[in-house]
Specification:
25% helix, Rossmann fold, 2 domains, 10 helices, alpha/beta, seven-stranded mixed sheet
Length: 316
């Protein structure tokens, strides 16, 4: 099969088809999408080498699977089910886990991939494939609400109007919170406004303006400091950014202001699929361009540009 392989160099290569082991299924990839984490891996994040990519929708081709012939999306953490983390309901932190396209498990930028059947979720029939590929990042946005209590009366600042920030802002809009999405890029501020989202440049924040909840999804090390600058004492700081070169954080500010810091990454898929099925989250405008797989290196180059939102790849 064809695959995009990274081993210090990045290239499309012919590699052997993956072979499912016990409880795994073979999936033909239909669409994938590029996440900022994929771009950070190319800068050295996680030290990963292999087939990149973790956001996908595909068709199960293993005939012995209950999902045979069905379109599915898949959770990215492959867990053992036996360790302490798994037994205490923290499967995404399994001590023996691998992570699709990030850690010890080849990813989705290929013709085929394998995943445990228990990681899979059926795509509702009314959800387009190009929308279903947003399931994983939308689940990550919803994870905030799984991790901490959010009140409709909370005011929320979201920093970073990229692909994840735009999804997070849409989820907070549904919650009834008084939210504002910030970005230093004027294009992204206007793009967000075009979706009907409250959006501003952070330079417009007045000294007295602070929020009870600040979310950092800027994708750069400076984002945490920006979010802390505008957080109320005893407020909640939710961190979504992962980068190859992490910045320094003044922990004195955390102690003095008694901040609650919440790291947040993967989320639950079924609520994300439900929101997509009900068309409560609008993802189609987020698609900047769809590339055929043989142009995936061009797709990665476009994904890294400042005015790009989301780049998809069409397989097969």
């Amino acid at each position: 099969m064809k695959a995009l392989v990274y081993d210090g160099n990045l290239s499309i290569r012919q590699v052997p088809d993956p072979v499912p082991s016990k409880n795994e299924v073979l999936i033909r990839v239909r669409y994938s999408s590029i996440c900022n984490t994929d771009l950070e891996i190319l800068k050295g994040y996680m030290g990963f080498e292999g087939i990149l990519g973790h956001e996908f929708v595909g068709e199960v081709v293993s005939e012995n699977s209950r999902y045979y012939g069905k379109d599915v999306v898949g959770e990215i953490n492959i867990y053992c089910g036996q360790c302490y983390m798994c037994q205490t309901g923290r499967k995404s932190h399994c001590t023996n886990r691998s992570v699709l396209g990030m850690f010890e498990h080849d990813g989705v930028f290929a013709d085929y991939l394998v995943l445990p059947e228990r990681n899979l979720h059926l795509v509702p029939p009314n959800v387009e494939m190009t929308n279903a590929v947003f399931t994983e990042p939308l689940a990550a946005a919803l994870e905030i609400f799984e991790q901490t209590k959010i009140n409709p009366t909370d005011n929320v600042f979201i920093f970073g109007a990229g692909k994840l920030g735009l999804l997070i802002a849409q989820v907070f809009r549904l919650s009834g919170c008084d939210y504002t999405l910030f970005d230093v890029n004027p294009f992204k501020v206007e793009f967000a406004r075009g979706l009907g989202l409250n959006s501003r440049n952070p330079e417009a924040i007045q000294p007295h303006e602070r929020a009870e909840i600040c979310v950092d999804c800027t994708g750069n090390p400076e984002g945490i400091g920006m979010a802390m600058d505008h957080l109320q004492p005893r407020g909640k700081l939710i961190l979504k950014t992962t980068v190859a070169n992490s910045g320094k954080v003044d922990l004195n500010r955390v102690v003095i202001n008694e901040l609650n810091i919440i790291g947040s990454r993967c989320g639950v898929f079924e609520p994300a699929l439900s929101l997509l099925s009900q068309k409560l989250i609008d993802v189609e405008p987020l698609i900047t361009k769809v590339f055929p797989f043989n142009e995936i290196e061009d797709a990665l180059a476009l994904a890294a540009k400042p005015n790009t939102i989301k780049v998809l790849v069409r397989h097969g």
